[in-house]
Design goal:
This is AIG1-type G domain-containing protein. The chain is of the alpha/beta class. It folds into two domains: 15-179, P-loop containing nucleotide triphosphate hydrolases (Rossmann fold), CATH 3.40.50; 184-224. The protein has eight helices and five strands; from the N terminus they run αβαββαβαβαααα. The radius of gyration is 17 Å and the shape is globular.
Length: 227
């Protein structure tokens, strides 16, 4: 099915997409399916899950797509300090803001665990984040789908990357090309710009990749201190 959304934002902007969900729901597998390649490591056991926030960019169906694969933000065994550091790292990876959130669920019905996940997303981001969200799951959960504007591009093993990308294009179109932002994302963008300028002035022989890596490390330290 061809996309009908054709604003200049959709044609030219990179799509920054954050994958949210608890541990073992298949976020890394979903990211690899979108890219059509094994870019993110898949856990071989319940104890070897994604432990750090990681971002990768690829060209997908003519779109420049950046996927931010997050660790289990919403796992109850993590301390507040661990959650804070992971959240700041995620924010840095998607600054100045994501164009879409994919809420990845692996459930048969809407349980207390899923309700807690929704509350955590509201807490860490805001209710506004759901305007930029789509749900990826196997069964049910009509209440959450309705909260995310009815966007439901994935069902069991019938996943179609083209359909998902069209859904993300729809989110971008409905938000007039704007990415999601909040105070932390705005602060992250300011810190990134300041840190990058400082590094460029002091280290003129560094490659762009090295500058980006040092910028993220410096901005991460500053933001963790601010928070």
């Amino acid at each position: 099915q061809a996309c009908v959304y054709s604003s200049k934002h959709i044609l030219y902007n990179t799509r920054r997409i954050v994958l949210l969900g608890k541990t073992s729901v298949g976020k890394s597998s979903l990211a690899n399916t979108i890219f059509g390649d094994t870019v993110f490591e898949i856990a071989s056991s319940p104890n070897s899950q994604t432990s750090i926030c990681k971002a990768e960019s690829r060209s997908v169906s003519g779109r420049s797509v950046t996927l931010i694969d997050t660790p289990g933000f919403f796992d109850s065994e993590k301390t507040e300090e661990q959650l804070k550091k992971e959240m700041v790292k995620c924010v840095l990876e998607c600054a100045p803001g994501p164009h879409a959130f994919l809420i990845v669920l692996k459930v048969e019905r809407y349980t207390d665990h899923e309700e807690a996940l929704v509350k955590k997303i509201s807490q860490y981001f805001s209710e506004e984040a759901f305007r930029y969200a789509a749900v990826v799951f196997t069964h049910g959960l009509s209440d959450l789908v309705e909260k995310c504007g009815g966007r439901y591009p994935y069902r069991s093993n019938q996943f179609q990357v083209a359909q998902l990308l069209c859904t993300i294009d729809e989110i971008i179109e409905q938000n007039n090309g704007r990415c999601y932002t909040n105070e932390l994302l705005e602060a992250a963008e300011r810190e990134i710009q300041k840190e990058e300028e400082r590094i460029r002035q002091s280290s003129r022989n560094m490659s762009e990749i090295e500058i980006r890596e040092k910028t993220e490390i410096g901005a991460l330290k500053r933001l963790c201190h601010i928070q």
